[in-house]
């Protein structure tokens, strides 16, 4: 299948690399919805750059897609190089991701960006909270770690990594990710206290107009959003498990290079 980049129903292709799966799909850029099913392969263990790139090539081949590909990584990507690897194989640090993926996917337009940045772009454009928030929007993925994207009128400030910001001497993601809740067996009340402290720290720095909460736990947001005690409204993400794929597809469509 080739890409169709003109007229209504413009299509692009996104791949979201996570700790357990490499998921991809064709995205309709007019609606932010997937065209057909997404396809997933298990993330190889160890998730080295070569092994993950092979998994990505398998997902692209499944769709017989010959056009541009956007790819997310759970890492800082700056200057075309992966700079961190908090929850993935350390072999990523220093990897020239464009050279790597070009070797596995051939010569075609590519965009590689942080997973939360991609999901935040997608939520701010296609999610329910997308209608004209007048101010800074902070999107957070609450999962194994805390991923972040800061957007202002749809423009992304990449690689903010707010999950690693220290809150009273401890990284935010070690205080309030959903994994920490699980590991400690905390109630929603207890976890909401921890998360509120993290959100208040972000408020002091960025004065956001809105937080959008993503990650699996946002599906149960009615159980914990009402318990938060920070000042800024928090709404659940609405694209959920397609946000990374959609954001990756958006990024390559606008030739985003971070
Ligand atoms: C990583 C981020 C990533 C987030 C969500 C954090 O541990 O440092 O780059 O966006 O997890 O996957």
Features:
258 residues; alpha/beta; Nucleotidyltransferase, domain 5; 2 domains; five-stranded mixed beta sheet; globular; disordered N terminus; binds beta-D-glucopyranose; kinase
Q: Tell me what portion of residues adopts beta-strand conformation.
A: 25-35%
| Tally of strands | 14
Based on the structure given, which CATH architecture of the largest domain is correct? 2-Layer Sandwich
Q: Which CATH class of the largest domain is shown?
A: Alpha Beta
Query: In terms of quaternary structure, what is this?
Result: single chain
Biggest sheet, spatial arrangement of strands: 3-2-1-4-7
User: What's the CATH topology label of the largest domain?
Assistant: Nucleotidyltransferase, domain 5
Rounded to an integer, what's the Rg over CA atoms? 18 Å
User: Ligands bound here?
Assistant: beta-D-glucopyranose
Folded structure, characterized:
The protein is an alpha/beta fold and 258 residues long. The chain has two domains: 11-117 and 242-254, Nucleotidyltransferase, domain 5; 129-237, 2-Layer Sandwich (Nucleotidyltransferase, domain 5), CATH 3.30.420.40. It is built from seven helices and 14 strands. It has helices at 49-63, 97-105, 115-126, 172-176, 178-184, 188-206, 243-253; strands at residues 11-17, 21-28, 33-42, 69-73, 77-78, 81-82, 110-114, 136-142, 146-152, 155-157, 166-167, 170-171, 210-214, 234-236. The strands form four sheets. It has a five-stranded mixed β-sheet with strand order 3-2-1-4-7. α1 (49-63) crosses α2 (97-105) and α3 (115-126) packs across α7 (243-253). The longest helix has 19 residues, at 188-206. The two termini are 28 Å apart. Bound molecules: beta-D-glucopyranose. Beta-D-glucopyranose binds at residues 74-76, 84, 86-87, 114-116, 141, 145, 147, 161, 163, 173. InterPro entries: ATPase_NBD (IPR043129), ROK (IPR000600). Keywords: Kinase, Transferase. Belongs to the ROK (NagC/XylR) family. This is Polyphosphate glucokinase. One of its GO terms (molecular function) is kinase activity.
């Amino acid at each position: 299948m080739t890409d169709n980049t003109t007229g209504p129903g413009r299509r692009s292709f996104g791949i979201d690399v996570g700790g357990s799966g490499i998921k991809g799909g064709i995205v309709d850029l007019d609606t932010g919805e997937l065209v057909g099913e997404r396809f997933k392969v298990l993330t190889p263990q160890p998730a080295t750059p070569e092994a993950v790139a092979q998994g990505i090539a398998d997902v692209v081949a499944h769709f017989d897609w010959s056009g541009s590909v956007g790819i997310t990584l759970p890492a800082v990507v700056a200057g075309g190089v992966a700079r961190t690897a908090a929850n993935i194989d350390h072999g990523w640090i220093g990897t020239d991701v464009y050279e790597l993926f070009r070797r596995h996917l051939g010569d075609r337009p590519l965009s590689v960006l942080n997973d939360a940045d991609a999901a935040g772009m997608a939520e701010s454009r296609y999610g329910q909270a997308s209608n004209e928030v007048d101010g800074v929007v902070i999107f957070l993925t609450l999962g194994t770690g805390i991923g972040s994207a800061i957007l202002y009128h749809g423009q992304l400030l990449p690689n903010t990594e707010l999950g690693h910001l220290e809150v009273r001497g401890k990284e935010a993601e070690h205080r309030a990710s959903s994994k920490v809740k699980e590991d400690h067996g905390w109630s929603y009340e207890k976890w909401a206290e921890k998360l509120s402290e993290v959100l208040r720290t972000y408020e002091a720095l960025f004065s956001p107009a809105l937080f959008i909460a993503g990650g699996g736990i946002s599906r149960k947001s009615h159980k914990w959003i009402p318990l938060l005690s920070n000042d800024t409204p928090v709404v659940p993400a609405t694209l959920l498990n397609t946000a990374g794929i959609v954001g990756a597809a958006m990024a390559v469509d606008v030739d985003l290079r971070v």
